[in-house]
Amino acid sequence: MKLGRLNHVGVATPSIEASIAFWRDVMGAQDIRAPFDMPAQGVRVCFVDTPNGQIELIEPLGEASPIHSFLAKNPAGGQHHLCFEVPDIRAAKAWFEGQGKRVLGEPRIGAHGTLIFFLHPADMGGVLTEIMETPEGEGH
Amino acid sequence: MKLGRLNHVGVATPSIEASIAFWRDVMGAQDIRAPFDMPAQGVRVCFVDTPNGQIELIEPLGEASPIHSFLAKNPAGGQHHLCFEVPDIRAAKAWFEGQGKRVLGEPRIGAHGTLIFFLHPADMGGVLTEIMETPEGEGH
After folding, report:
1. Is residue A140 part of a domain?
2. Would the ipTM clear 0.85, i.e. be above it?
3. Distances in Å between the alpha carbon of B129 and those of A12, A61, A78?
4. N- to C-terminal Cα distance for chain A?
5. What integer pLDDT is reported at residue B136 of this predicted model?
6. Which of A59, B25, B40, B95 could covalently link to A16 via disulfide, CB atoms 3.0 to 4.6 Å apart?
7. Which residues of chain A have pLDDT under 70?
8. Looking at chain A from residue 23 to 62, which residues have their Cβ under 8 Å from any Cβ of chain B?
9. CATH number of the domain residue B57 falls in
């Protein structure tokens, strides 16, 4: 296992529209992608490009969204997860399981169209960690 | 104001030594810098290189460390702040103040040897935000 690129930092927000205005008008982001829904994961997401990666804005979608409990504790929003790229999602899953880390569910298609999984923050130094197979054409 | 490079993600930890072992042995980091103390800020820090940036591990240093309260709420550690680069720290301070954002203290020398300041998380979508003048030779 070799540490991969930090694909994005996930930032939860009660309002993607308000966060888009903040990142555009206050932080000066010039490339903000169109928001879209991910019903299977209970989130609406929007990617904000930085010169060397992305911020993923995440808003709750539906009553069962896992983001509700995060926002109950952090009503203004806040840092939610870190996402690192790997070349092979199955090998990464086996690696982390072999290290005794809890993989949360089976790999599934993530916001960039490749397979992802999450690791339990209590096993990862308090950091909810997403592992993503590197999107096509974005390998380094 | 134009969004700059995400220089690093700050991750608080109760033990930098344990976190170094985690990032090296579990996450596969290959470039981990030597830890060092920043007494003026009440922290001991260690930078872990990723292919496109850094993770800054932060451990409390001294009884007055601002990290103690974070760890009281998050005993295992967790994501603490995001740090973005700017070309001119004074211009950035004036910009954020003009936007009604609370700058926490005067610019001071940060862990990379250039001037930094922090912005109040309640004004920044719940994200404690560090602004850093781009280190020499690292401009993009």
Report:
1. no
2. yes
3. 15, 26, 11
4. 15
5. 80
6. A59
7. 138-140
8. 23, 25-30, 48, 50-53, 55
9. 3.10.180.10
- B140, part of any domain: no
- Using a CB-CB cut-off of 8 Å, the residues of chain B touching A13 are 125-126
Is A59 considered catalytic here? no
Number of domains in chain B: 1
Count of positions (residues) in chain B: 140
pLDDT digits (tens, 9 = 90+) for B35-87: 999 998 999 999 999 999 999 999 999 999 999 999 999 999 999 999 999 99
Token pair of A113, please?
A: 């169209």
Residue A6 in contact with partner chain B when CB distance is under 8 A: yes
Look at B96 and A26 and tell me if their CB atoms are within 8 Å: yes
Rounded to an integer, what distance in angstroms lies between the CA atom of residue A109 and that of residue A111? 7
A134 touches chain B (CB under 8 A): no
Is residue B87, in this structure, part of any structural domain at all?
yes
Distance CA B72, CA A79 (A): 18
Domain that holds residue B112: 6-133
Candidate list A106, A130, A136, A138, residue with the active-site label: A130
Smallest CA–CA distance from A123 into chain B, residue: B76
B22–chain A nearest CA distance, Å: 8
Please tell me the pTM assigned to this model.
0.96
Is there a domain that residue B1 lies in? no
